[in-house]
Amino acid sequence: MGRHLVVGFGILLGFAAACTGDGTPTAPATQPAGAQPQTIAELLATRPAPKLAGLAQRSHPDAKGPDATESFFDILKLRETGDQKAVPILAEILASNAGTGRIHGYAAAQALFCIGGNEARVALDKHLFQLDEYNEQWGRSTYVFHWDMPEPRRSQYIQAYMLKRIGQGLELTLEAKLEEDGKVQFSLRVENVSTKPLGVILPSIDNLYLRSEDGRFLFRNKAARFDPFGGPQWVRLKPGETQTVTGVAVIRQAGDLRKDNPQLPKDAQAVLEMAGTQYYIEKPGQHQAVFVLEQLPMTRELEDRLKLENPWSGLENPWSGRAVSEPVPIRLATPSRTSKPKERS
After folding, report:
1. Domain boundary among 135, 162, 189
2. CA-only gyration radius of the chain, Å
């Protein structure tokens, strides 16, 4: 699909403004006057290849203002160039922005993956498997879709760096079933397979990745940030103990949604909606579903950064890592627009 919603583009510019400190979401200065790009891809299409000299300095966490905004789009442009000379610079940007939450680091990761090569892989492996540096919950899972990362690299990136298990102790078992009324029932079992009690955040059931038969992951539009410290349900799992999380998703005709959402991609035939998250279905049929549960290691530095009052209080052995379920098959069918609920006899 490779295209994101206009609202997503606005959100992106908002992040750029937050990172640059200018307070006003604006397109990069090199955009022609009066032009209104609808996607990141359109914005980058007319943008020249960036100059590598000084890019690392302009992308440093201390950089503010227009230079920082421009450097962000320069990094994204490097996804297209395949320039191996950019790899050490991008690796430096990835390292300097690690743990800051700034978009420049996430953009550098995408560019490194698209360029490829052993040096790029070493840099990615060093930083992307450190949850306190770059995590799946928000940064990579949101940006990888809304920044028009080209296929098949996007799906390859998701498989390599977002669905990689990190740590041990938890095992996830996902079940999915399509009902006759166009609803999908999801059930996730979280099991402590370690030898000690673990403190675990019970996840929201919508942290799914859906993959079509052609190997591409469905575009996922998550409405709001999942904050693992913003009032979730904490549980203490004894060894061998399980907890189950369930949820219901609804499949709707894309045509029924375009009136309220005219930016819905034209190639989407249906939309699966669940808990504020939408998945755009291009071709109904057989898919695979994978669930990710990620829990960051709690440190005093993270507590201070999040201004928290000991959120782990009372929990024994808080677990940290990334648990990933085995993929399960699910057939996603397009519901009939004329279908009506069955009357009770």
Report:
1. 162
2. 21
Give the pTM: 0.83
Tokens of residue 316, six digits: 């024994």
Provide the residue range defining the domain that includes 236: 170-332
Q: Are 278 and 237 part of one and the same domain?
A: yes
Per the structure block, which two tokens stand in for 44?
Answer: 């980058």
The candidate with the shortest Cα–Cα distance to 210, out of 290, 147, 276, 285, is 290
Read off the DSSP letter of residue 25.
-
The residue whose two tokens read 């996007």 is: 154
Q: Characterize 97-123 residue by residue with b for buried, 16 or more Cβ atoms within 10 angstroms of its Cβ, and e for exposed.
A: bbbebbbbbbbbbbbbbbbeeeebeeb
DSSP 318: B
Q: Are 144 and 40 in contact (CB under 8 A)?
A: no
Other CB atoms within 10 A of residue 172 CB: 19
Predicted local distance difference test score (pLDDT) of residue 301: 63
pLDDT of 48? 94
Euclidean distance between CA atoms 221 and 95, whole angstroms: 28
Instruction: Say how many domains are in the chain.
Output: 2
| Same structural domain, 136 and 186 | no
- Alpha-carbon distance 290 to 205, whole Å? 11
Whether the CB-CB separation of 167 and 293 falls below 8 Å is answered with: no
Same-domain pairing of 113 and 193: no
Per-residue model confidence (pLDDT) at position 34: 56
82: its two tokens? 């395949």
Do both 153 and 205 map to the same domain? no
Hey, what's the torsion of the CAs at 192, 125, 89, 139, to 10 degrees? -30
Cβ distance 272 to 332 under 8 Å?
yes
Do 183 and 327 fall within a single domain?
yes
Binning pLDDT at 50, 70 and 90, where does residue 17 land? very low
d(CA 305, CA 309): 11
Q: Exposed, middle or buried: residue 336 (CB in 10 Å: 0-12, 13-18, 19+)?
A: exposed
User: Encoding tokens for residue 113?
Assistant: 């993956």
Q: Is residue 97 part of a domain?
A: yes
Same domain for 217 and 241: yes
